[in-house]
Specification:
A four-stranded mixed beta sheet has the order 1-4-3-2. With 299 residues, it is an alpha+beta fold. Helix 8 links the parallel strand 3 and strand 4. It folds into two domains: 197 residues, Alpha-lytic protease prodomain-like, CATH 1.20.1510.10; 72 residues, Cation efflux protein, cytoplasmic domain (Alpha-Beta Plaits). The longest helix has 30 residues. It is elongated and about 85 Å long. 63% of the residues lie in helices and 11% in strands. 41% of the residues are buried. It starts with a strand and ends in a 13-residue tail after the last strand.
Length: 299
């Protein structure tokens, strides 16, 4: 049996922490402005920004925890902490959007005047801040934890655009129900942006095959290695973002142990080069053994 390891790095915790501090400061100001402006769109955006602050804080904490070394009881380390943070962030987005829908419905028939000037000004500041944070996180999109924070911030930037547009419509038409409509649009976007993160995080925790990876391709690569006769008990899963693992049993002809080890090295290198699978565990079996099914289920 042989295995290899290859680990990726998490995004800079310093960037996440700084982004969180800036977001929290703005959330307080936006919420106060929303109350004084009687704008549900602003209050909704502040709620989304607050969720973003929590998302950034969770992402920061998870990134720090993920750097902890492996232990005898946690041989893969704490890399899954980032996946748990991404899952919590996605669920928080869903809850925020449901609250926005309820408030928009409740206030749809309200005729309370909305201060469109304040609404536009605050939304513009939010757009600048969220766009800046999104720019800082742009290179971390391959990490699910960082991507959950990135989606939060990108969603806020686009939501701010919606609030600005709604503010101008109210300013020129006096249609205050536009404020509720903009809130609903923000909520729909939040739900849409959170779905992909929620699904991917769930797949990782269920140890499903990595997104976009074909199990047939894994099998084919292994079988192309000279000396390999068959492969079974094949599993491929994600430990954390960018950390793919594979385990399998490979049947070879009756060769020396040295030849078997050479086959293992070639398989490990091929999977790493072609599919970016960096943690591979292979058990060599001699020809004549009874093979199990390709994908065996635990009994």
């Amino acid at each position: 049996m042989s295995h290899s390891h290859s680990h990726t790095t998490s995004p800079s915790p310093r960037i996440l922490l700084l982004s969180c501090a800036l977001t929290v400061t703005f959330v307080v100001l936006e919420a106060i402005a929303g109350i004084f402006a009687h704008s549900l769109a602003l209050v909704s955006d502040a709620g989304h920004n607050f969720a973003d602050a929590l998302a950034l804080l969770l992402a920061y904490g998870a990134a720090k925890i993920a750097q902890s070394p492996s232990t005898p009881t946690r041989s893969f380390g704490y890399h899954r902490a980032t996946i748990l943070a991404a899952l919590v962030n996605a669920l928080s987005l869903v809850l925020i959007s449901l609250f926005i829908f309820w408030e928009a419905y409740r206030r749809l028939g309200a005729t309370e005047a909305v201060n469109s000037h304040l609404m536009i000004a605050v939304a513009f500041v939010a757009l600048v801040l969220n766009s800046a944070i999104t720019f800082f996180l742009r290179n971390s999109k391959e990490d699910l934890n960082a991507r959950s924070a990135y989606v939060h911030m990108l969603g806020d930037a686009l939501a701010s655009v919606g609030v600005i547009i709604g503010g101008f419509i109210i300013l020129f038409t006096g249609l205050y129900w536009i404020d509720s409509l903009v809130s609903v649009v923000i909520g729909i976007f939040i739900l849409h942006s959170s779905w992909g993160i929620l699904r991917e995080a769930t797949d990782v925790l269920l140890e499903a095959a990595p997104k976009g990876l074909s199990m047939n391709a894994v099998e084919s690569i292994i079988k192309t290695i000279p000396g390999t006769l068959a492969v079974h008990d094949l599993h491929v899963w994600t430990i954390s973002s960018g950390m793919l693992a594979c385990s399998c049993h490979v049947t070879v002809s009756r060769k020396t142990v040295e030849d078997g080890q050479q086959i293992v090295k070639q398989i490990v290198q091929a999977l790493k080069d072609q599919l970016h699978i960096g943690h591979t565990t292979i058990q060599i079996e001699i020809e004549g053994c009874d093979p199990d099914e390709l994908y065996c289920a635990p009994q």
